[in-house]
Amino acid sequence: MDISPEDRRALIQDKYAGDATVDLSDDIKRLTLGEPLAYVIGWVPFLGLSIDLSSRPLIPRVETEYWTEKLILHLKERFGDAPFNLLDLCAGSGAIGLSILHAFPAARVTFSDIAPEHLEQIRQNLTLNSIDASRATLCAGDTFDALSDVRFDVIATNPPYVPSSRVLPSSVQDFEPSIALYADTDGLSIIRRIFSQAKTYLSVDGELWVECDIDHASDVQRLALEAGFARSTINEDQYGRPRFVVSYCS
């Protein structure tokens, strides 16, 4: 079985720097078995960065890229050139936090993820994108478990939020890490845990940005208000679907 002309062009351009004479037989075999193109290429673009995927984290989606760009625009209005602290929680590839470090030379970002191999990948991506690694802190642990008493101005997270009963495409279900996808029967178990602890780690005027399932955005907003956040807004992705919830301490 062959691959689409689009995938062939992407492989040649993004994996082999435009060398049209390269042998693609191994790549084609991986793709015909259902492996995602991003893993076969080995990296994805994200807001001008190259995010290496060698540790095989969840592949960053365009929806995440969209709201991360919205977050950057908001932070520019709020902080300008002033320093601030951000936590990329359930960091995975680190695409969110890496984008913040790239956009804000005075920012500091803590990356927290349960998988140490992804944190090592983030460390490599800092170098790959010429980002000052001294502004990054990497913590291996489940949600907040590995964090100290530091307070953050912003927590940004794309946590696991897929209900365990949902059937995903085989290219996702068979190849991407289930621990980064599923969150018990209703998809909200990790998000509940995040809201139960988040205010402990936020400054008095802190913000929590959470990507969520489009069917559960109102539930996430309710969890925010029940956790004591002053207000919470549901925001749409580029396709007009309720995709991320922003909650404010004050």
Top-tier CATH class: Alpha Beta
In angstroms, what separates the terminal alpha carbons? 57 Å
Largest sheet, in brief, is: 7 strands, mixed
Query: What count of helical segments does DSSP give?
Result: 9
Q: How many DSSP E strands?
A: 9
Secondary-structure element order, N to C: HHHEEHEHEHEEHHEHEE
Spell out the CATH superfamily: Vaccinia Virus protein VP39
Mean pLDDT: 96
CATH architecture: 3-Layer(aba) Sandwich
State the helical fraction.
Answer: 25-40%
**Domain module tally:** 1
Task: Tell me what the structure shows.
Strand 4 (108-113), helix 6 and strand 5 (136-140) form a beta-alpha-beta unit. This protein is an alpha/beta fold and 250 residues long. The protein is globular, with a radius of gyration of 18 Å. It has 9 helices and 9 strands. The mean pLDDT is 96. The strands form 2 sheets. A 7-stranded mixed sheet has the order 5-4-3-6-7-9-8, with helices on both faces. The chain has a two-stranded antiparallel ribbon with strand order 1-2. Helix 4 (62-79) runs parallel beside helix 5. The chain has one domain (57-248): Vaccinia Virus protein VP39 (Rossmann fold), CATH 3.40.50.150.
